[in-house]
Design goal:
The complex is a heterodimer of chains A (467) and B (154). Chain A starts with 33 loop residues before the first helix and ends with a strand. Chain A contains 15 helices and eleven strands. Chain A is elongated. With 467 residues, chain A is of the alpha/beta class. Chain B is 37% helix and 21% strand. Chain B has a domain of 102 residues: Sufe protein. Chain: A (Alpha-Beta Complex), CATH 3.90.1010. The chains are: A alpha/beta (467), B alpha+beta (154).
Amino acid sequence: MSAAQVDFGSPQPPAGAGRKRQAARAVPAPRPHPRLAGAAVVLAGAGLGAVAALTITGESAGQLSAPGGLLTFAGSLTGMVGTYLALVMVLLVSRIPLIERVAGQDGLVRWHRALAPWPISLIAAHALLLTLGYAEAARSGFWHELGVLLNRYPDVPTATAALGIMCLIGVISVRAVRLRLTRETWWLIHLWMYLALAISFAHVIVLGPAFVGHPLTRLVWSLCWAGTAGLVLCYRFGLPVLRSLRHRLTVAEVRAEGPGVVSVILAGRHLDRLAVSGGQFFLWRFLTPGMWWQAHPYSMSALPQPPYLRLTVKGRGDHSRALARLRPGTKVAIEGPYGAFTTYAQQRPKALLVAGGIGVTALRSLLEDLPRGSAPVVVLRATRAEDLVLAPEVRELVRHRRGKIHELTGPRDQAAIDPVSLPRLVPDLQYRDVYVSGPEGFVADVVEVARTLGVPDESIHHEAFAL
Amino acid sequence: MTKAPWLMVAGAVAGFLGVLGLHKPATPASGATPGAAGGQASSPSASSAGSGPAGPVTTTGPAATVTGPTEQYGYGELAVRVTIRGSRITGLTVPLIRTAEPFSQQLASQVIPVLRNEVLSAQGTNINAVSGATYTSQAYATSVQAALDQLHFK
């Protein structure tokens, strides 16, 4: 069967419509369990409290009143809390499915970003405070003590190198700097954080007052870090490799969908057993000489139709433009599926789906998971009519589900989605969950409009496509 | 996940109190168990550099000196040389101390004279650990006790 024979363009009727579709349809992604994710949050908090308490119990009143005692204590506390937060940062991007299914990849990355300034500044403060504290205790100066620390303390030179790496990563992650770097450069430097954490581990265990003379604390701390490293290896490396080997995806066809927009159709094995829900995305790694080393997130623009899988991409960066030149037969590795932008998240009886521009891809596959008669309202928004890609497919899917579709084109001020226009398009908004996908700015605006109109946060779901 | 911040705060409080509750307060150095390795007996010559008895001296019998075993503690290792004369501990010196880093070295140099005075006035190792130097105090007391045992002191 050649790729030309597969027709994602005339979508199958929804489940239960009488056609034998279930046999070929991929299994849905496992159900999210918010309680388990809640338990993980409690555990993360407990770790934070425990680390603070361990530092305090490692100290005594005599030490605090000694010269430099307060500074040294503050140095220990900032170091311990900062290092613990660094561990949480790593866990947040380790793609643990249990948590990812509830919070979504973008939610976890948001937390990771929000938390990021803390570990780096606390660890920098730790180095500064301890140097000052030791200098005061030894009645010497800051620079002299710094020399002593670097020359005569075991594992401190490597920890200092690690601090240098962390500060560099902190600087390149500041928005103004980050925007000047390519995504690839930024990501490669960002990876050094694993090295920094690994080489700074020894000085914590060898010198930390909470660890020296406390073999049990040492053991637990080491197990926590080993466990985290294991999770990262398992979910960021092992699982994607296994999945890629199992499904052996190759490019079957590249199709133009609109101005600068292409669909890539992949063929693979066992896609009927790939557990994925509409609205989810994968990190795709196209194994060509120029692209193999980077994985990029793109939504599926349709549920798998074994043996085929489709993604649709707008050419904005170097990578997405290069997709148009992919040759059939190119091997593709996948990581995922990720994303909580699925029907599992729905709280109210009906749904409103809003997409801006290329955000239609996630909406298109999500729509497939909505049952017959679910009467969704779909709003597609684009600046030009020709940018409304996949619109015929969306119309067809909406019609099968007895829903309504509104296609808005034109400049922002003329075809706006605002607190006045949206209730006109969707009079029964109070019975609907709002799903928004599209560029970051568009998503933020629509989420704000939905909040203004009284839609509770649990009923607003979004998937932002970073530029 | 709108409740996430509250869950995290609740977890933090629980974790903090949990560790405080499980924590055992630092044990005093008294009743320290002697190290497994025996000390090396040296010739019974006085080896004290400025060591003097603290109480009234009842010096009957010859002086005997033994170096206690090298005790490892978290930030280093040390051994104490003990001199007794009759039923009195009359001299304590530290012929060996190695620490992981300068801060501990400096701390030890402040703490060892204090510990020495404590042992001399208590005439035994039933002493209090110096606050902020619990491990050094424990290692010191352990090494002294092992030396005393070898000297069949009391």
